[in-house]
Structure formats: structure tokens, C-alpha cells
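fwd from M.: "can u put these together and see what the complex looks like"

so here's what she sent:
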Amino acid sequence: MLTTAVAENAYDLALENFDTAADALELNQDIRAMIKYPERVLMVTVPVRMDGGHIRRFEAYRVQHSSVRGPGKGGIRYHPQVTLDEVKALATWMTWKCAVVNIPFGGAKGGVTCDPKHMSQGELERMTRRYTSAILPLIGPDQDIPAPDVYTNPQTMAWIMDTYSMTKGYAIPGVVTGKPICLGGSLGRNEATGRGVFYTIQCTCEHLHMTLKGATVVVQGFGNAGSIAAQLLHEAGAKVIAVSDSTGCIYNQNGLNIPEVIHMKALTGHVEGFPESEAIDPNELLALNCDILVPAALENAVHAGNAAAVGAKIIAEAANGPLTPAADRNLENRGVFIIPDILCNAGGVTVSYFEWVQDEQHLFWEAQDVYDRLERVMKTAFRDVLKIRLDRKVPMRIAANMLGIGRVAEAVQIRGIYP
Ligand code: GLU
């Protein structure tokens, strides 16, 4: 039996990753002092009238880590485990992520500590609107642009867009991305994270001279990123042998019919009970022998207690921070090829950038344009990271951090300090 996740502080991990890459880049202390820590942190109380008539108070955050290369960019997360340190870590990763794919944004992130699965639509709407009004001075199309993250979606973005617009007095679609199409959302944004994960897996297979057809895949987490990645891998001929969500885990050695699993999840809200599959303990999922493991849930999914049991050759980090440093070391030492989060899942923010550009220009693109541009951006970023890995003989994670941090360092050096 494998142990469950141990508590690791994601922000400590983000700082540790920064130091490792900054050392490899030989960044001087002045530059480090200017780019390592968040520029702005806002903590707010969000009172919400619940359906029962009483008022509940939620703690919420918006962190802007960097505005060196452009406006802050990053999602908003609704989850019971949201803490300030988690949001600071996620905001930090957004800065390096945007720089890795070379889009003109800094990094930011928001979060509300709540349990959205036990809240009604009305409660979620009131909480979202009050949270928006609390962070309103910080956000805007030229300042900081939120987007969906764990347990937030296009509807959440529509409420944010409406609240912001009503306060300003006119419609401002560019204040958020990941909106519904009818409000200025982009075609292809909903599946962008999973599609980007897929492109980086394709690049990896090419690099390792592996074929995707017939490759075995395990996906942990079946939300937006995990389910779309699974779908595209399935369409490319890979065999997705197991998937899990927060309620359970299903397994079929011959491959699951992913479109049908997605259909069932949409109807019932969970994957468990899918015909032609056996239920396995979610803790056993990571230990399954497979070619590609896609952790697409939360931070710290693979840790010191379960890393040694991981049987995959490639790990594609669709989630943010799914490996603890100890797990990372264990897997690197065993020769597992890791596609790090700030590269692997950057497709979401890349199409967010495309959405923002379309909103600013009031000119909308066809889906194929979005896919083609996304593929170019992801494959260029993969090639750039791989080059650093090969030239400098460092793991992919350090190479990705070196690319992202190096670009921010160059920009801050040229900007200098004002006043
Ligand atoms: N939440 C996603 C991420 O972690 C997307 C952020 C965005 O589109 O701004 O990358």
C-alpha cells in the first residue's frame, strides 16, 4: 500500500526551483532580489449570503508575482486547500511559464478557500462577484488578467467580466480569459491546456524515438486538462489504461474508451463505475507500469513516499507542481523523462494570450488558426528547453526554469529600477 501525499509547502518548492536555476544561470544577487518574490499580495475577506440565509466568510487572495514582461496573468482557484503560500507559488510559476512560451505577460494567481462542490450555483455566483469586487483595484486588461484554474470555469469568468464591466460602466471582455465564446472567448481555449500537454508529449516521443501509437498512458485527474489530454492521446492511437478523479480510479489493461469515459463523467460527475473497467485504489494508479504518466490533479501528487513505485518512462506534468523535490530527484535518477509543468501545461495560458489579443483587437480567429499557432508556440518552447537541457546537461525542469527566469532577468536588467 502506498502512502498518501505528505504536506509540502509549494512556495518553498517554488523558491528552491528558482535558486537552482538562478545558480545555473549565475544570476547576481541584485537581479535575484528584483525578480524572485511577489510584487504585490492582496488578502481579502469575502462575505457571502448562503442559501440558508446566514452569512459565511471566505478567505481569498490575489498575488501578482511579476509585471516585468507585461500585465500579470494567471488563473483563479476555488479549493478547500487554497492557502496564501499556495497562491504565491502558483503566481511565481506563472511568471516563468509565460516567459518559457515567450508571451508578453508577467505572473499572477488568485484563490478562494472554499469547497465549491458543496455550494449552489447561486452561492458560487455571489462569492465570485464579491471576490471580484474585492480584487477590483488590482485587475484589468492592462494590469492583471485572471482565467480559470482548479474548479473555476467559463461561467465563473463570465461573472467576473460582468461584475468588472458593471463597475466601470461598459463591457470590458479583456479583463479575463477563458470566457464563454459569446462574451469574447477564444475558440480552442477550453481544450488548450490538454492540447498543449499533447504537443509536448509528441515532441518527447520524437526526441526519445518512441511511437505514440500503442504507448500506454495513465492519467491522474480527469478535469479540463487531464480529460482533453487523454482524449487527444487516445485519438493518436495511445492506450489510456487508467484514469482517476477525486472520487475514484478506473483501469483496463486493453485501454479505456476515453470519449465514453468523458461522456459518463459529464453525465454523472465521476469516472467510477465505467463499464469495461475495474475500480482500483487511486494510490495504486501511480505505480502502474506504463509509458506515459500524466499527473493532472493537484500539487504534491508524487512525493517521497510513492515516487519509487512510479513505473512510467515519461511524466507529463499537466498539473502545476505535481512532483515534490524528493520525488523529482528519485525519478530523474531513474532516468524518467519529465516534461515540467511550466512547459507542459503552458498551452492554457498561451491560448489565454490569443484570447486577450482577439479581445483587444475585436477581431476573432478560426479554431484552426488557434491550434496552429498553439502548436508552433509549444513546439518552439519545447525545442528551446531541450536545447538548454542538452547544452548544459541539466534536467528538463531546471532547463525550463533557466529559460523562463533568464528571460525575466534580461528584461528587468534593461528596465532598471524606478524611482
Ligand atoms: N490556470 C492556468 C495555468 O495555471 C491558465 C492561466 C491563464 O490562462 O491565465 O496555467
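replying to her w this: Residues 192-339 form a domain with the Rossmann fold fold (CATH 3.40.50.720).
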